[in-house]
Structure formats: structure tokens, C-alpha cells
Amino acid sequence: MAALQNYAWPGNIREMENMIERGILLAPVDGYIEVEHLFALIDEDELSSISSRGEPCFPAVSERDADDIYMSVLASGIGLDELEERLIDIALREAGGIVAQAARILKLTRPQLVYRLKRRNAEAGLEDAIE
Fold first, then answer.
1. Which of 89, 47, 29, 30 is nearest to 38 (CA)?
2. CB neighbours (10 Å) of residue 19?
3. Which of 22, 30, 101, 115 counts the highest number of beta carbons within 10 A?
4. CB under 8 A, 24+ apart: contacts of 100-105
5. 17 phi-psi bin (left φ>0, alpha ψ -120 to 50, beta other)
């Protein structure tokens, strides 16, 4: 229950309905619906990286390590726009192209990520096909 309550539902109510229906279908007839039934479309490695609260788990980074990462990025000369673009691309790749999952990786809401993708496409002169 905690996984459902704390899962960042970046989609809409249909996402929740689909997940619950999937859990009902995959759970044993006289058994309980477990986290692995709800998150069945996620492979074993990703499933182990989901906390009981329904959030992705990433290795903890100390404040010092984070500062080292930030300093490396600044020293590289990569601009903020390029950094954002690369982070979004990597998150989408890691999420298998699933915008809602990429948003969770980036600690954004789905609408926030969609806005950034639309803005990027508009700047590149591409059609607005992201929903």
C-alpha cells in the first residue's frame, strides 16, 4: 500500500487504474497484490531500484561527491542549456522513452518535463508532438 500511496503519479488517474488492473491480473487468485505485480512492466533490476514507497532508488551521493560532480561540470565548459538537454536525453534513454518515468528520474513532474521537451522542440523548429 505504501508503494501506491507514495508513488509519484506523474500521469493521470488512468495510470493508476492501469497499474491496479495489472496488479489484479498478475496476482495469484487467492493471494495478495505485491509491488512486483503492480510494477510488472519494470524489469528485475529496475524493480529492485524501486523503494517500498514507490520511488526510484539511486545510490546515495555524499555532499562532497556532489560538489565534485558539479565542479567537473562547471570545469567542462558545458552550458546550462546543453546540460539540461543531455540530462533529459539520458533520463529518457534510461526510462525506455517513457516520459513519466524519465520525469521521476529527473525529480520533475511529467507536465514539467513535457514543457521542457516542447520548448526544446520549438527552439529546434520541430513539430509539437509531445503529450
1. 47
2. 21
3. 101
4. 100/10, 100/11, 100/15, 103/10, 104/8, 104/10, 104/55, 104/56, 105/56
5. alpha
Q: How many CB atoms lie within 10 A of CB 99?
A: 20
- DSSP bridge pairs for 56: 50
Residue type at position 72:
S
The secondary structure of residue 7, as a DSSP letter, is S
CA distance 21 to 46: 20
The DSSP element (H or E) to which 99 belongs, if any, is helix 99-105
DSSP H or E stretch at residue 123: helix 110-123
Q: What is the pLDDT of residues 72-96, one digit of tens each?
A: 888 888 888 888 999 999 999 888 8
Return the percentage of the chain with pLDDT > 70, whole number. 69
Instruction: Give this prediction's pTM.
Output: 0.52
The residue whose grid cell reads 525506455 is: 96
